[in-house]
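# nightly structure sweep
# worker-07 picked up a monomer target from the shared queue
# config: single-sequence mode, recycle default, output format = structure tokens
# input follows
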Amino acid sequence: MIDKLFKSKKELDLVAKNKILEIEIEKLKNEIRKKDGFLKCKNNLIIKKENSEKNWQKIEDGLKKYYNENNKLREEIKKYDLIFSNSNFKHNYLIPIEKYLFETKFKEIIVILNNKGKRYVQDLNEYVIEHLSIEESLKLNLKYKLQKFQNLEINWEIKTYLLNGEKISKIYMKYRKFTNILLNENIEFMSQLENYNFDKLINQGFLTDDILKLKEISLEYKSKYKIEKSYF
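# output follows
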């Protein structure tokens, strides 16, 4: 499944499969949480019924069964996580610094970086950080965050952003009618608009000028955030 995902030439197919994988991983994690809860209950029963050999055997068999199943589920999650490893993962979109460095302690640093023309996480490196006029402790924190980013030790939201760009609902928040149409078409991210046929919206009651504006927003986003070459 992983090979098929990254051999696919169609970005829309990549997006769809990413969403499916996210759902599958969440299901696996929920299953593990349920079974972990079962194991805790069984352990309590062991304490209460430790004098009953028959009950002990049943409980022990149940524990072995669920431990084995949980181990298999965790292996499945590791397999899915390979999709977002450094060897496979692509940087398709620039990440605004404030989106990644959202903690209050980085607020002033973001202003300093923006004044130096550094607006995206991909603009950062150790040299840039080392030459910032900030406290050493903040430099260390910033270097640590950059290293985590470069190693892709980041949350799903940032990973999804790297692959697919911003959510359409945020970029087109003033165009509710348009976003509702896209929602019905299972289109959620800006990457999915690159080959979108905006002209068909004329049949949905959109005026020509409105369609041109929607196209313009999509092209502007692409020119500003789309990466032609992968970073790192």
